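Re: the 201-residue chain
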Amino acid sequence: MAELKANLISGAIGGVTGITTALVIIAIHEHFGGISAGDVLQFLGAVMGTGLAVGGAVWIEERKRKLGMADAAMPVLDALIVLEHKSRPFFEAPEERERNAEGIERQMVVLEAVLALSPPRSARMIGLFYKLRLAAAYLTSDAYLKMNVEAPFKAGPERHRVEEKLEYFDGPLKLLIVEYSRLIDPKAPRSVAHLGAMPDI
Protein backbone atom coordinates (compact mmCIF):
# COMPACT_ATOMS: atom_id res chain seq x y z
CA MET A 1 0.00 0.00 0.00
CA ALA A 2 2.81 2.39 0.93
CA GLU A 3 4.57 1.56 -2.34
CA LEU A 4 1.43 2.27 -4.39
CA LYS A 5 0.92 5.56 -2.51
CA ALA A 6 4.52 6.56 -3.26
CA ASN A 7 4.03 5.71 -6.96
CA LEU A 8 0.83 7.78 -7.11
CA ILE A 9 2.54 10.76 -5.43
CA SER A 10 5.48 10.49 -7.87
CA GLY A 11 3.06 10.31 -10.79
CA ALA A 12 1.12 13.35 -9.55
CA ILE A 13 4.31 15.37 -9.09
CA GLY A 14 5.49 14.34 -12.55
CA GLY A 15 2.13 15.25 -14.08
CA VAL A 16 2.00 18.67 -12.42
CA THR A 17 5.59 19.37 -13.46
CA GLY A 18 4.86 18.35 -17.04
CA ILE A 19 1.72 20.49 -17.30
CA THR A 20 3.48 23.48 -15.73
CA THR A 21 6.37 23.14 -18.17
CA ALA A 22 3.92 22.85 -21.06
CA LEU A 23 2.05 25.99 -19.99
CA VAL A 24 5.32 27.94 -19.70
CA ILE A 25 6.36 26.82 -23.20
CA ILE A 26 2.90 27.74 -24.56
CA ALA A 27 3.08 31.16 -22.91
CA ILE A 28 6.48 31.82 -24.48
CA HIS A 29 5.28 30.69 -27.92
CA GLU A 30 2.12 32.79 -27.66
CA HIS A 31 4.17 35.83 -26.74
CA PHE A 32 6.35 35.41 -29.82
CA GLY A 33 4.02 33.93 -32.43
CA GLY A 34 0.65 32.85 -31.08
CA ILE A 35 -0.89 29.44 -30.51
CA SER A 36 -4.60 28.70 -30.83
CA ALA A 37 -6.72 27.45 -27.91
CA GLY A 38 -7.40 24.24 -29.86
CA ASP A 39 -3.69 23.50 -30.11
CA VAL A 40 -3.30 24.07 -26.36
CA LEU A 41 -6.20 21.71 -25.52
CA GLN A 42 -4.94 19.10 -27.97
CA PHE A 43 -1.45 19.22 -26.44
CA LEU A 44 -2.74 18.99 -22.85
CA GLY A 45 -5.04 16.10 -23.83
CA ALA A 46 -2.10 14.21 -25.34
CA VAL A 47 0.00 14.80 -22.18
CA MET A 48 -2.80 13.61 -19.88
CA GLY A 49 -3.61 10.60 -22.07
CA THR A 50 0.03 9.51 -22.11
CA GLY A 51 0.27 9.95 -18.33
CA LEU A 52 -2.86 7.89 -17.72
CA ALA A 53 -1.69 5.15 -20.09
CA VAL A 54 1.72 4.90 -18.41
CA GLY A 55 0.17 5.05 -14.92
CA GLY A 56 -2.32 2.33 -15.81
CA ALA A 57 0.42 0.08 -17.20
CA VAL A 58 2.53 0.55 -14.07
CA TRP A 59 -0.48 -0.25 -11.84
CA ILE A 60 -1.29 -3.42 -13.82
CA GLU A 61 2.32 -4.65 -13.64
CA GLU A 62 2.47 -3.95 -9.88
CA ARG A 63 -0.80 -5.82 -9.41
CA LYS A 64 0.51 -8.81 -11.40
CA ARG A 65 3.71 -8.84 -9.33
CA LYS A 66 1.78 -8.85 -6.03
CA LEU A 67 -0.56 -11.61 -7.22
CA GLY A 68 2.45 -13.67 -8.29
CA MET A 69 4.05 -13.18 -4.87
CA ALA A 70 0.81 -14.18 -3.14
CA ASP A 71 0.47 -17.35 -5.25
CA ALA A 72 4.06 -18.36 -4.48
CA ALA A 73 3.69 -17.60 -0.76
CA MET A 74 0.53 -19.71 -0.30
CA PRO A 75 2.24 -23.17 -0.22
CA VAL A 76 4.82 -21.86 2.27
CA LEU A 77 2.10 -20.42 4.50
CA ASP A 78 0.20 -23.73 4.32
CA ALA A 79 3.36 -25.62 5.35
CA LEU A 80 3.96 -23.21 8.26
CA ILE A 81 0.37 -23.59 9.49
CA VAL A 82 0.60 -27.41 9.30
CA LEU A 83 3.89 -27.22 11.22
CA GLU A 84 2.17 -25.10 13.86
CA HIS A 85 -0.65 -27.67 14.19
CA LYS A 86 1.75 -30.63 14.26
CA SER A 87 3.81 -28.99 16.99
CA ARG A 88 0.81 -28.65 19.35
CA PRO A 89 0.94 -32.28 20.61
CA PHE A 90 4.68 -31.87 21.22
CA PHE A 91 3.98 -28.78 23.32
CA GLU A 92 0.94 -30.11 25.13
CA ALA A 93 2.01 -33.67 25.98
CA PRO A 94 5.47 -33.58 27.62
CA GLU A 95 5.40 -37.33 28.33
CA GLU A 96 5.01 -38.11 24.59
CA ARG A 97 7.52 -35.68 23.11
CA GLU A 98 9.85 -38.34 21.77
CA ARG A 99 7.06 -39.78 19.62
CA ASN A 100 5.69 -36.36 18.59
CA ALA A 101 9.14 -35.06 17.63
CA GLU A 102 8.88 -37.07 14.39
CA GLY A 103 5.91 -34.98 13.26
CA ILE A 104 7.96 -31.78 13.58
CA GLU A 105 10.94 -33.31 11.75
CA ARG A 106 8.78 -34.52 8.84
CA GLN A 107 6.98 -31.19 8.47
CA MET A 108 10.28 -29.28 8.54
CA VAL A 109 11.34 -31.35 5.50
CA VAL A 110 8.10 -30.37 3.72
CA LEU A 111 8.63 -26.71 4.62
CA GLU A 112 12.16 -26.72 3.23
CA ALA A 113 10.88 -28.27 -0.02
CA VAL A 114 8.23 -25.60 -0.66
CA LEU A 115 10.36 -22.70 0.59
CA ALA A 116 12.04 -22.45 -2.82
CA LEU A 117 8.69 -21.18 -4.22
CA SER A 118 8.76 -18.09 -1.99
CA PRO A 119 12.07 -17.65 -0.17
CA PRO A 120 12.36 -15.06 2.61
CA ARG A 121 12.63 -11.54 1.16
CA SER A 122 14.07 -9.60 4.09
CA ALA A 123 16.86 -9.94 6.63
CA ARG A 124 14.19 -10.25 9.34
CA MET A 125 12.52 -13.22 7.64
CA ILE A 126 15.87 -14.90 6.92
CA GLY A 127 16.71 -14.52 10.62
CA LEU A 128 13.35 -16.00 11.67
CA PHE A 129 13.85 -19.07 9.44
CA TYR A 130 17.37 -19.49 10.83
CA LYS A 131 16.00 -19.45 14.40
CA LEU A 132 13.17 -21.83 13.47
CA ARG A 133 15.58 -24.36 11.94
CA LEU A 134 17.91 -24.21 14.95
CA ALA A 135 15.01 -24.56 17.39
CA ALA A 136 13.46 -27.49 15.48
CA ALA A 137 16.82 -29.29 15.40
CA TYR A 138 17.31 -28.64 19.13
CA LEU A 139 13.82 -29.67 20.30
CA THR A 140 13.95 -32.93 18.33
CA SER A 141 17.53 -33.75 19.37
CA ASP A 142 18.31 -36.70 21.63
CA ALA A 143 19.83 -34.33 24.20
CA TYR A 144 16.63 -32.28 24.59
CA LEU A 145 14.32 -35.29 24.56
CA LYS A 146 16.46 -36.98 27.23
CA MET A 147 16.42 -33.82 29.36
CA ASN A 148 12.65 -33.66 28.88
CA VAL A 149 12.21 -37.23 30.19
CA GLU A 150 14.51 -36.67 33.14
CA ALA A 151 12.86 -33.41 34.26
CA PRO A 152 10.04 -34.09 36.74
CA PHE A 153 6.55 -33.58 35.28
CA LYS A 154 5.51 -31.01 37.83
CA ALA A 155 5.91 -27.31 38.52
CA GLY A 156 9.50 -26.67 39.45
CA PRO A 157 12.70 -24.96 38.28
CA GLU A 158 13.91 -27.99 36.33
CA ARG A 159 10.65 -28.48 34.44
CA HIS A 160 10.37 -24.73 33.85
CA ARG A 161 13.81 -24.65 32.19
CA VAL A 162 12.77 -27.44 29.82
CA GLU A 163 9.44 -25.78 28.92
CA GLU A 164 11.08 -22.37 28.45
CA LYS A 165 13.04 -23.70 25.48
CA LEU A 166 9.81 -24.34 23.54
CA GLU A 167 9.58 -20.60 22.89
CA TYR A 168 12.75 -20.83 20.77
CA PHE A 169 10.61 -22.67 18.21
CA ASP A 170 7.15 -21.25 18.82
CA GLY A 171 8.19 -17.57 18.63
CA PRO A 172 9.77 -17.59 15.15
CA LEU A 173 7.04 -19.92 13.83
CA LYS A 174 4.22 -17.56 14.86
CA LEU A 175 5.97 -14.54 13.38
CA LEU A 176 6.67 -16.34 10.08
CA ILE A 177 2.97 -17.27 9.78
CA VAL A 178 2.10 -13.58 10.17
CA GLU A 179 4.78 -12.46 7.67
CA TYR A 180 3.65 -14.93 4.98
CA SER A 181 0.00 -14.07 5.68
CA ARG A 182 0.86 -10.43 4.91
CA LEU A 183 2.36 -11.43 1.54
CA ILE A 184 -0.99 -12.93 0.59
CA ASP A 185 -3.20 -10.28 2.19
CA PRO A 186 -1.94 -7.21 4.10
CA LYS A 187 -4.97 -7.52 6.43
CA ALA A 188 -4.27 -11.21 7.12
CA PRO A 189 -2.85 -10.81 10.67
CA ARG A 190 -6.49 -10.40 11.77
CA SER A 191 -7.09 -14.00 10.73
CA VAL A 192 -4.26 -15.44 12.86
CA ALA A 193 -5.60 -14.29 16.22
CA HIS A 194 -5.56 -17.91 17.40
CA LEU A 195 -1.77 -17.67 17.62
CA GLY A 196 -2.09 -15.45 20.68
CA ALA A 197 0.28 -12.65 21.61
CA MET A 198 3.16 -12.20 19.20
CA PRO A 199 6.61 -12.73 20.74
CA ASP A 200 9.10 -9.89 20.68
CA ILE A 201 12.14 -11.48 19.03
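The chain has a mean pLDDT of 77.
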